[in-house]
Design brief:
alpha/beta; 14 helices; 2 domains; TIM Barrel; 8-stranded parallel beta barrel; globular; single chain; about 325 residues
């Protein structure tokens, strides 16, 4: 018997999506100081990638209602990172049907971004394929997040993976959008994704939400079964219940290139103020939507209302709708 947990896998890379996923709790209206603090922390901690936000369409998302990180324009990114003369790779997410990608994603040699992450639902695969090709042709590393996989029929998932495996995307990410999956399901999904990527040189990734407080456990499970691209956020900051906490993930990985001290400094200096303004984590309404495999939008709306502590009322409402 061996003890693989005492060593590390050097090919495994970590992506921080604090600003992108966390921006969903405040319409991406982070102050520059916070974004710079997260960037500096990623650099000092040895994180491989930092996702700075979305490439959102200004036609669909009015600029007077969202912060800069909904759009990730070059001037805004450079205001924080300059030319990013570091080992940290920068990425932005391009949502299928929500991004004017032909116009807003510049050629890579005109951008400080290194990677474009295309996010797609199964029914948007044709658009996603065109987006992947467009970004690849512009010179970017391209990855793809296949969202809401917990509600996708297996025959549709198989066809989607077959199509995506034939694209230039370097990584296909298992995304537990609703925080509904258990470790046994994560194992099956990672193995399925790997069966489609074997021989292609592509990696499999994991992006877990924390509705049932399983984001860290599910990330570990994905790693055990060969996922080499893993997402996390500082203090688990993210939409709804949030994501796998970076401080837990780096402590688990044991790779000496990663450093925890900068993470805990960020948590001490930056997070208390944010936690006084916004709520995230496995609150009862998020647990309920995770257990029912439902999108957390109803929980988000409920928690912004006047009776946010009435979790039994929310549970009964969800059960009636489920029936």
């Amino acid at each position: 018997m061996t003890a693989p947990w005492v060593t590390y896998r050097p090919e495994l890379k970590v992506l921080d999506c604090t600003i992108r996923d966390g921006g969903l709790i405040n319409d991406h209206m982070f102050e520059d100081g916070f974004v710079k603090a997260v960037y500096d922390t990623c650099v000092e901690a040895g994180v491989d990638y930092m996702e700075v936000g979305y490439k959102g369409s200004r036609r669909l998302f009015a600029p007077d209602k969202f912060g800069a990180w909904k759009y990730c324009r070059e001037d805004d990114i450079r205001r924080i990172v300059g030319e990013n003369n570091t080992n940290l790779k920068l990425t932005a997410m391009a949502d299928a049907e929500k991004t004017d990608y032909h116009e807003d994603i510049l050629p890579a040699d005109h951008s400080v971004l290194d990677v474009i992450r295309v996010a797609t639902y199964v029914h948007q695969i044709p658009t996603a394929v065109d987006m992947i090709k467009d970004a690849h042709d512009k010179g970017y590393e391209v990855t793809v997040n296949l969202m809401a996989v917990s509600v996708v029929k297996e025959i549709e998932l198989d066809q989607a993976l077959e199509v995506l495996a034939a694209t230039p995307a370097s990584t296909i990410v298992v995304v537990d959008s609703y925080g509904a999956l258990y470790t046994e399901q994560i194992e099956l999904l990672v193995k399925k994704y790997k069966s489609f990527t074997n021989g292609t040189g592509k990696e499999v990734g994991i992006h877990a939400h924390n509705n049932q407080q399983l984001a860290f456990a599910n990330t570990i499970e994905a790693i055990i079964h060969g996922a080499n691209r893993v997402d996390a956020t500082m203090a688990g900051l993210g939409r709804g219940a949030g994501n796998c906490p970076m401080e837990l993930l780096l402590g688990f990985l044991r790779n000496p290139k990663f450093h925890l001290r900068p993470i805990y400094r960020l948590l001490q200096e930056q997070m208390p103020a944010l936690q006084s303004m916004y709520e995230w984590g496995a609150l009862p309404p998020y647990i309920i939507t995770g257990q029912l495999n439902q999108h957390p939008r109803a929980a988000i709306s409920f928690l912004s209302g006047p009776n946010k502590d009435a979790c039994l009322d929310f549970y009964e409402k969800c059960m009636r709708e489920e029936a």
